[in-house]
Design goal:
One of its GO terms (biological process) is alpha-amino acid metabolic process. By secondary structure, the chain is an alpha/beta fold. The protein folds into 2 domains: 133 residues, Aspartate Aminotransferase, domain 1 (Alpha-Beta Complex); 222 residues, 3-Layer(aba) Sandwich (Aspartate Aminotransferase, domain 2), CATH 3.40.640.10. It has 13 helices and 16 strands. The strands form 4 sheets. Strands 4-11-10-9-8-5-6-7 form an 8-stranded mixed β-sheet, sandwiched between helices. Helix 2 crosses helix 9 and helix 4 packs parallel to helix 5. About 3% of the residues have low confidence. Bound molecules: pyridoxal-5'-phosphate (PLP). Pyridoxal-5'-phosphate binds next to helix 4.
């Protein structure tokens, strides 16, 4: 068969490997499945390769600060795992995940008020894979998914890959707005568009930095229950709150109406790639089958390593260490924004997690500003990546999880200078046209 059309591929070089050798012509351009058209590389990925240079303060990536882990101890634990339990750790495991780890996961979820049995837990390759499996079992092309606007870029990438139609629900500084949720469900039902699920990050939202308040939690549960809409509660940051006890999970109050997604990426380390889904029985069965068709079984090795860590190490203390470290960084970011940003810029004040969501003055476009910011040695993620409909140009995500507090302050100083210059240009020449964003950014570790 001779291919009819040819295209030059975009190389996905993350700046760490030499560019690939050979032809960049894609001989198979007209052979891809329709769903592959929804998979587009982020336009800003090339900029992030530059942003990872040491002279650039990156307020962009959401990388946990794993240096704060007792790495010697983790090393010993991993080494012992191979020498003592190698034949099990290096063997295939079950599609649902290691039974003992699933018990331990139930202990972790109890901190958020969830009372669940290990039998309803499916261990996944990070919660990102749980998102993929959920979407795989529920979504046909064109099906509707509800999600906050803005929403997690990795979830939007998955929904796009399965050709879902994402409808955004308004969010304010108290989380998703229940009236907006109810109205949207009503409008879609009236239009005859069945909703497959609501995807929500109620606690320490990525990228919004906001948390759904207690009163709204019950309202969201009630609205979805009345309408028969399943809730996917994505909660990787729930234990990283800076004040008080963890919030009660939505799943704690409706076991049949909520699929809960959890992860050890932020409370231990993303390198283990261990996350999970807690689902009603029937959904769990489908998830296990989907898991087996995707990867046969998760890595026994990393599951046992996480299990060993939880069994032998003071993991609650380690989470406290992370919380204190991220609180200090959050304070550094908010103090610097308060003292350095022009008054026309506004931002959220997170009570936990990794992110602040900033809103620029009218007429400024965060994606247009990014190359200038990188030239001034500071990076952020433009807001458009967090919407499936091209909006969000006036917003940016600032993350405080990775840089040291002094670097955060310096980054904000540089960013404030760039924004001030942009405002002057706007005042002199008028507003530029805000470009429409095409497609959905792929998640990529640099955007997580
Ligand atoms: C809201 C949200 N969900 C899911 C993920 C995926 O996490 P992981 O696959 O590492 O568990 C992330 C990662 O940043 C996230 O922020």
């Amino acid at each position: 068969m001779t291919p009819r059309r040819w295209a030059v591929t975009e190389e996905l070089d993350h700046g760490q490997t030499p560019a690939t050798q050979g032809s960049r012509i894609d001989a198979y351009v007209d052979r891809y499945a329709a769903r592959a058209t929804g998979m587009v590389a982020s336009e800003i990925r090339a900029l992030f390769a530059v942003a990872s240079r040491p002279e650039v303060v990156s307020l962009a990536g959401g990388m946990p600060y794993v240096t704060a882990l007792p790495l010697d101890m983790v090393g010993e634990l991993v080494s012992e795992l191979v020498t003592r339990r190698g034949p099990v750790a290096l063997q295939y495991g079950s599609g649902q995940g290691d039974p003992h780890l699933r018990e331990q996961i139930c202990d972790v979820m109890r901190l958020e008020g969830i009372n669940a049995g290990a039998n309803d837990v499916v261990v996944t390759v990070g919660s990102q894979q749980a998102l993929d499996l959920i979407t795989r079992i529920f979504i046909d092309p064109g099906d509707v998914v509800l999600a906050e606007g803005p929403s997690y870029v990795g979830a939007l990438g998955t929904f796009a890959a399965y050709q879902a139609k994402v409808v955004h629900i308004a969010m304010d500084d108290q989380g998703i707005v229940p009236e907006s949720l109810a109205q949207t469900i009503y409008a879609l039902e009236t239009a005859g568009a069945p909703i497959k699920f609501l995807y929500t990050i109620p606690t320490f939202h990525n990228p919004g930095g906001v948390t759904l308040n207690i009163a709204r939690r019950q309202q969201v549960l009630d609205i979805c229950q009345r309408a028969g809409v399943l809730i996917i509660e994505d909660n990787p940051y729930g234990l990283l709150g800076f004040d008080g006890e963890p919030m009660r999970a939505l799943r704690a109050d409706n076991p049949d109406g909520v699929v809960y997604l959890g992860s050890f990426s932020k409370t231990l380390a993303p390198g283990f790639r261990v996350g999970w889904a807690l689902a009603p029985h029937a959904v769990r069965d489908k998830l296990v089958l989907a898991m087996e068709s995707a990867v046969l079984s998760h890595s026994s090795f990393t599951q046992l390593a996480v299990g060993q860590y939880l069994a032998t190490q003071p993991w609650r203390e380690q989470i406290k260490t992370f919380r204190e470290l991220y609180r200090e960084r959050r304070d550094a970011l908010l103090d610097a924004l308060d003292s350095l940003m022009p008054p026309e810029v506004t931002w959220t004040r997170p009570g936990g997690g990794f992110f602040v969501w900033a809103t620029l003055p009218d007429g400024l476009d965060s994606k247009a500003i990014l190359p200038r910011a990188v030239a001034e040695r500071v990076a952020f993620v433009p807001g458009t990546g967090f919407y499936s409909d091209g909006s969000g140009a006036r917003h940016m995500r600032l993350s405080y999880c990775y840089p040291e507090p002094d670097r955060i302050r310096e980054g904000v100083r540089r960013l404030a200078g760039v924004i001030e210059q942009e405002m002057q240009l706007r005042d002199t020449f008028g507003t530029g046209s805000v470009r429409d964003h095409q497609g959905v950014d792929t998640p990529g570790p640099d955007l997580a």
